[in-house]
Design brief:
This protein has eleven helices and seven strands. By secondary structure, it is of the alpha+beta class.
Amino acid sequence: MIIVHEQPAPSPPPSPHTPRSLIVAFYDAYGRHVPGPVPVAGLIRLLAAVGVDAPSVRSSVSRLKRRGLLLPARTVTGAAGYGLSPEARRSLQDADRRVYATAVPDDEGWVLAVFSVPESERQKRHVLRSRLAGLGFGTAAPGVWIAPARLHEEARHTLRRLGLEGYVDLFRGEHLGFAPTAGAVTRWWDLPAIAREHEAFLTRHAPVLRAWQARADTPPEEAYRDYLRALDSWRRLPYADPGLPAALLPADWPGGRSAAVFHALRTRLHDAGAEFAGVTPDGRDPTTPDGRDGKEPDGRDGDEPDSRDEEEPGGDSA
């Protein structure tokens, strides 16, 4: 008799969501389009819909404020709220070209970032490397980083914002050899690791898309929850994956499939989610009668530590 042991189902990938990343995703999707600051009570309500409790919201907002990405402000009704700083708004606008791009990139050449940092300023060297990696640059040689040429403007803006432009020269050009370019990119980027990130996105969100495709209704709160989580997962990927031309990628590259899932979810869910996330033009949170929602439920200032609130990888442009 042959005994067949049932194999356990594979574990789902670990959750990519943190309170801070979900707040950034909210401002990306909806908050930046609100006239005026988002009331604190509204932010707490909207993050609760994706499983973030009030103390974690306060802690994460405090950290984003300290980084200069959120600015405290009052709504027209006097409620405490937070809006995006000009720097954060520019970062999201820069990210739009990647996060919401639908066209397959053409072979347009390369941008090279060549930097030299004195040993006495080694911390800036670390920041340079981490930011270039976060922008999707690969390593061509020590001190020489490479990316598709269309990323040069975003790299320029980012390096200037960080005050690092004095250490970097940017060049634009072609790869002329000697190895075939399709082989060279496997040295410049860890393509298997990037492919695994796409597969993790598909594992988590393709079933969500199939479930929505099987139903006719689109309840606003469910749409908001599923879209915000998908956006939070997705907005990292166009930074981990620089968007190489298809001719340079393996035939079974999963990037196109993951992009199709994200854009289908966005098309189906974004507008219904906006209905749930809606903040009235005068800055009121629709769940409070007078909009005076500025006082924190327990009076704390939001500086409590949160072990889930780690530094975000590339894609936390804001």
